[in-house]
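Problem statement: downstream parser choked on a complex file, so we are re-checking the raw output for the adenosine-5'-triphosphate run. The parser issue turned out to be on our end (a line-ending mismatch), but while we're here, posting the original submission so the record is complete.
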Amino acid sequence: MIEVVRLSKRYGDKVAVDDVGFTARPGRVTGFLGPNGAGKSSTLRILLGLDAATSGTASINGKRYRDLDRPLRTVGALLDGAGPVPERRAVDHLAWVARSNGIPPRRVGEVLDVVGLADVARQRVRKYSLGMGQRLGIAVALLGDPEILVLDEPANGLDPEGIRWIRTLLRDHAASGRTVLLSSHLMAEMAGTADDVVVIDHGRVVAQGPVAEVTAGHPSLEAAFFALTGDRPGPGR
Ligand SMILES: Nc1ncnc2c1ncn2[C@@H]1O[C@H](COP(=O)(O)OP(=O)(O)OP(=O)(O)O)[C@@H](O)[C@H]1O
């Protein structure tokens, strides 16, 4: 379970996250939705111990990330922009992450199979396409067989088949009683993946609840999103 309570983050005068609260529950995929710059990555970075909150708390199974024992075995994460050293081979990167977290080496082969990179595991990461890099990031997230997955824009760089693949992976993870939190600015992707959504705009939560509830009165989740955020679909959105 993930709990975010009255979380705020300021960068100088800029309020990036403003009194945000939500819960991501076991057995459900929770979608964290918002336009670019809404505060999604800032919230997830605090949750994962990469940044400090100005006020409020973000916890994983009741603990701050930094207080988790062997964190990768509790929570697997994929963050925008985070990636392995380009000169490293994918398999070596995974083996290094596994070693540093006390994860059995056999998991490396298992996750390479799950993400469909087994045949290219010995290639250097710099030769990977965007989509392959994204799959490698997901492999790292799965390495510790974690109860909780936190993924920032996991569909970035994936083709339609890749998007369908990750949707199935996340649905299966939740169906086995585990917790999934994923951020996206892509409504269509979220409508088919999430059980619950948290909609954030200008740092504040503007709606949250089961997809059907948030969508009620609108023709689609996309229409609800644009009505809630006052934004129009356009380039980069
Ligand atoms: N390190 C930083 N210093 C100053 N401002 C920042 C910093 N990180 C984020 N911000 C600002 O905080 C706001 C929220 O950014 P954040 O990256 O959390 O949004 P986001 O919803 O994840 O958007 P995106 O999808 O574009 O990543 C933005 O206005 C951004 O410019």
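For whoever reads this later: The mean pLDDT is 91.
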